User: Fold this.
Amino acid sequence: MSKKSGTKGNPKKVDIDKTELLVVTGDSGTRGWGATRLKVQDLSTQINNFLDQMGGILEKTPHKLGRFQFEEFEVNAEITGKGSLALLGTGGEVGATGGIKFLFRRVREEEA
Assistant:
């Protein structure tokens, strides 16, 4: 005898696929929103490549900018339908957007 799903006290068990993520995209070439399945390993590789690239950029930033001290750097990236990361720029498009926020803080000399 099977139990009905969604009944009180007996929530339906959902199997989670740990090898893939469902990413909702709103690529400009499509009408509306679409969903794409991405392999977790592929996305992990893309994120690590992105972080390596950002690390190279941040290593070249000055500690001081005039009378100001450079403490942190915030970057927002979007996961594309193909699974790569793209920096979110400013533009005329308005709409819901998601993605990943990276906040890089400079390590103080005494912490290094």
Q: What stands out?
A: The helical segments are 40-59. The chain has one domain: 20-111. The first helix runs from residue 40 to 59.
